[in-house]
Amino acid sequence: MAEKKPTFYVTTPIYYPSGRLHIGNSYTTVAADAVARYRRASGYDVFYLTGTDEHGLKIEQKAEKLGVQPQQYVDKMAKQIKNLWAELDVSNDDFIRTTDDRHVKAVQKIFQQLLDQGDIYLGTYAGWYSVSDEEYFTESQLAEVYRDDEGNVTGGIAPTGNEVQLVNEECYFFKMSKYADWLMDYYKSHPDFIQPNARMHEMINNFLKPGLEDLAVSRTTFSWGVPVSANPKHVVYVWIDALTNYITALGYDSKDDSLFKKFWPANLQMIGKEIVRFHCIYWPIILHALGLPLPKEIYGHGWITMKDGKMSKSKGNAIYPEDLIARYGLDATRYYLLKAVPFAGDGVFTPEDFVNRVNFDLANDLGNLLNRTVAMINKYEGGVTPDYHDTDDEASQELQKMAADATEEYKHLMDTVHLSDALSAVWKLISQTNKYIDQSEPWVLAKQQATDEASAKQLANVMAHLAASLRLIAILISPAMPNAAFEILNQLGLDASTFDIKNAKLNDFVGGRKVVENGEPIFPRVDVKEEVEYIKGKMTVNEKAKGRAAMKQAEEKQATPGVATLKNLKDDIAFPDFEKVELKVAEIKAVGKVEKADKLLKFKLDAGDDGERQIVSGIAKWYPDFEKLVGKKVIIVANLKPIKLRGELSQGMILSSEKANGDIQVVTVDPSLENGSSLA
């Protein structure tokens, strides 16, 4: 009988689909993904949940403004978010939407239970409401108050910076005040419940000690929400609707509650610090009122900020993960996100810091270590990794000790969600391994091995230690950078199907594997000045400026008689910019699926190069019979910087067209055109 695995349930907040998600929004999901991957590789049965919070006045107003139904709007936004998580290689087991029928039915039952047992009562709310925050505020809580000439309050600004409006309506209230003492006692008896610990002190000093007020949990002034079964003119207000997703996704109080019984209570709920109050006050009280155990840990992480403060679309200073992935690859983007945010603080994004991390941490430290090791094994050992043996020379002992210490430190830090520090622990091992090359001087041993058997033996031992260390490094970075981890193992000729962090050791290395003959750099160095400018150009403030310029240009064109009204989707570019793009004709010689990547196809093309060019494209969905593409001639962007996608090198881009319904079709050209010919 197979050993029963311990369970681990990790969640992200469910995201409000009111706009495009930037890297600050994406951090939580990537961080939770790293935790989920780490726990799976440590022998746990993991369930990882993320999703979208789709109800509320803001969504209703947004949809109305766009001239669509709220459901249409949230369907489109949810699809965008799912696509982003796929692009970030997020390994979630479920994606809950608050518009899902399973969720709506469960919320109605939960609300009715709380109403029946007297925890919810009907009353009237009069006060200030922020549509953007979906939150009520008292006058004393407002950051700024507007008054008329007679001194009467006419409006104000919430602590978040959003405007509030006066609301006077019938609504249901949850008796939060009833449970304030219980929650205070729970905090005291569970000191690790909220992390970092400073967040708990904030909850106590800012909310519990001043007195916990009852919470409005329904609205009548809009209809886009879950109707209250006992009083359908009311819709369930955000917190009971949104917070309960963590249990409704598991089938709580449904015909099939097997997942709930298996995984609840959650082991870790990851959230941004801005929503700690809702998750650490409202959520525990709701669960307690339902008679359910509380999550074991709620971690309220810091933000990725900019030099000028919090990253936001409204401030025009956001950067988006898709732009970073397209330019620098998935693993560089994931590494930066996880490295940028310390455990108890905020991280500050700058283009310079991002580029330096790519060049120094990834290209110099890790990438160069792999390149040197593979090259030396090919040169000195005929391309085959020697068997590993613990040895007592000083340099090897230093490496052996660092491997053991770094692995132990890494596991402790991952267990306690110190993700940035955990990566730093791995980089200690990377640094020591690079140092080991200089200490061992394999080039000297290579000169001596022809006449000195001991030197030959020592040289083999050095190569084995280098390969073993890289194998261990790959296993440890796999939660953060899964594709890079696969590629390291592939280049070393090792099995890359699974990662076993639980049993990861330096001396588990088994030799006799053929390394690749010409390993491609997994993290190429980039030009600092050029890439800093690229990132700056992708930041929202610049895009807005471009947009305003484009609008002005369009207006000027419209004002010119006889000039067509152009329907371009992107900003105009100057001819020198177009000249930088090299378009070539290429013939598809072979095509196949990328292993463990349902969306990706791998093409071999004759584009007039010395050998076949490989391009990876995410069009598998539209070409189930992809073999029929063989022999077709297509147009490629030939000088696009090569990147790695799921461990496969992609040397360019195949041009496709997008139909009105979203379908993708590869652009083919006349078969008489010569392979490698340029398009002008």
Key features of this structure:
single chain; 680 residues; alpha+beta; Rossmann fold; Methionyl-trna Synthetase, domain 2; Isoleucyl-tRNA Synthetase, Domain 1; 6-stranded parallel β-sheet; 6-stranded antiparallel β-sheet; 21 helices; 26 strands; 19% strand; globular
Description:
There is one protein chain. The protein has a 6-stranded parallel sheet with strand order 3-2-1-13-14-9, with helices on both faces. The protein has 4 domains: 7-107 and 240-320, Rossmann fold; 116-219, Methionyl-trna Synthetase, domain 2 (Beta Complex), CATH 2.170.220; 350-508, Isoleucyl-tRNA Synthetase, Domain 1 (Orthogonal Bundle); 578-666, Nucleic acid-binding proteins (OB fold (Dihydrolipoamide Acetyltransferase, E2P)). The chain has 21 helices and 26 strands. Helix 6 (197-208) packs across helix 10 (276-289), helix 13 (351-380) packs antiparallel against helix 17 and helix 13 crosses helix 19 (528-538). With 680 residues, the chain is of the alpha+beta class. It comes from Fructilactobacillus sanfranciscensis.
Condensed summary:
With 680 residues, the protein is of the alpha+beta class.
